[in-house]
Amino acid sequence: MTPSGRARAKGPRTTSPRHILRNRASWNRDADAYQREHASQLNRFDRPSWGVWEIPEAKLDVLGDLKGKDVLEFGCGGGQWSIALARRGARPVGLDLSIRQLGHAARLMSDAGERFSLVNANAERVPFADESFDVVFCDHGAMTFADPYATVPEVARVLRPGGRFAFNMASPLIWLCWGDGEEPPGPELVRDYFGMRRGSWPDTFEFQLPYGEWIRLFRANCFEVLDLVELRPPARARTTYPEFAPPEWARRWPGENIWKLRKTG
Questions:
Q1: How would you classify the pairing of strands 159-170 and 198-200?
Q2: Exposed, middle or buried: residue 156 (CB in 10 Å: 0-12, 13-18, 19+)?
Q3: Dihedral sign, CA of 73, 84, 34, 182?
Q4: Residue 17, C-beta contacts closer than 8 angstroms, at least 6 positions apart
Q5: 20-50 pLDDT per residue, tens
Q6: Residue 198 resides in a domain
Q7: Whole-structure pTM value
Q8: Residue 5 falls within a domain, yes or no?
Q9: What share of the chain in percent tops pLDDT 70?
């Protein structure tokens, strides 16, 4: 367990950690099927929305007015969010670990008549200069699939003072209710809360921390918590991700949450 407040591992990293190699291979293998399966939900450039239950940004106002701002989508997948934000006057850059996902992003960007940079890189060591962006965000992107003790310091480094950092991911609560297989979450706690860090699923490694540890990590990297938005699906919610959680479960307990932060230094 990494001690609270220790933002970086010591010493240079000469090889990619196992979770990076496994996640890259998984997303390169599954990108085509993923984009086909979820196109009807993801390719809504007129209505950017958050998460499994497609909660509109217009309702949540997580990112604010992005016109004229430099925005990094931190694990962009097919680039659907970045396309939507480019149409609203932002200057996005899409970063992703999977070159196959970026191929879909390039195709969708061309079809939409937009142009912005796409970067194939590991979110734990991003190839950008200090203070390059006004906003860094993701929706189940790099903050799910990379180690937060590496990504949070990197985001702090590339954000300008006063910049916005926002990311949606599965909540700690749903982690506690997922079993060891692929069954949906139930009404009982089946995992330990203390010691959460990295979970191994059938094809990927994912990351999560207890709430207090998240807050200490943010503070250690000069982030102020503005809000924690816990997403609740509407009564008649539809989703292309039915395996994530039954809608009746997600209406009782938050399965996803958006951390909304500001860089103070």
A1: unpaired
A2: buried
A3: positive
A4: 124, 147
A5: 999 999 999 999 999 999 999 999 999 999 9
A6: no
A7: 0.92
A8: no
A9: 94
Residue 23 lies in a domain: yes
pLDDT at 202: 81
Q: Residues 100-126: pLDDT tens digits? A: 999 999 999 999 999 999 999 999 999
Query: What's the mean pLDDT when you consider all of the chain?
Result: 92
Q: Would you put residue 59 in left (φ > 0), alpha (ψ -120 to 50) or beta?
A: alpha
Task: Give the number of other Cβ atoms within 10 Å of residue 222's Cβ.
Answer: 16
Total domains present in the chain: 1
CA 187 centroid distance within chain: 25
Q: Which domain holds residue 219?
A: 18-170+211-243+258-263
pLDDT at 13 over 80: no
In a domain, 38, yes or no: yes
What does the pLDDT look like over 141-187, one tens digit per residue? 999 999 999 999 999 999 999 999 999 999 999 999 997 766 789 99
Residue 15's pLDDT is what? 59
Cα–Cα dist 199/201, whole Å? 6
E strand or H helix at 215: helix 211-220
- Given a contact cutoff of 8 angstroms between Cβ atoms, the answer to whether 50 and 140 are in contact is no
65 Cβ contact list (under 8 Å, min separation 6): none
End-to-end CA distance of the chain: 27
Three-state secondary-structure class, residue 72: strand
CATH classification at residue 233: 3.40.50.150
Length of the chain: 265
